[in-house]
Amino acid sequence: MSETSPDPSWREKASLNAAHQRAELERKRQVQSDQARAMIATFVRAAVAADVPTRRFIAHSYGGGATYRTSVHGWYLRKNESVGVGTDGEFYVLAVQGSLMARLRGAELTPSDPPLVLGQGARDGESIDLSEALDRALHPERPV
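Now predict its structure.
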């Protein structure tokens, strides 16, 4: 074996380690998503029981310039109306690929896996715990 080529067993170990790390990150993400789904289900029941008004979601193009009607009704979770929870109990990121068809017929929204922190990794002050965002949506009359 030459000095410049790594030991094949080292490559194998590194590959297995990377695969293990990816699997562990995915497992943690799934656990957090399951926790967030449970929080959202509780929120939807409470919001319906309290008759908190819903709105039809408006989606924004990825570039942010255009808006599109959607068929989904629910509650916005951020002031900038970039994410929301539908009356169907699903979590939606309200950004879509713009198109002429979407402009004419409305945009189709696809549910996303909910995070425990909205905007995680964003600039300081732009992230918010899901629990806090749900509480704000449940009690819109409270000052922020």
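Residues 42 and 89 are 9 Å apart (CA to CA).
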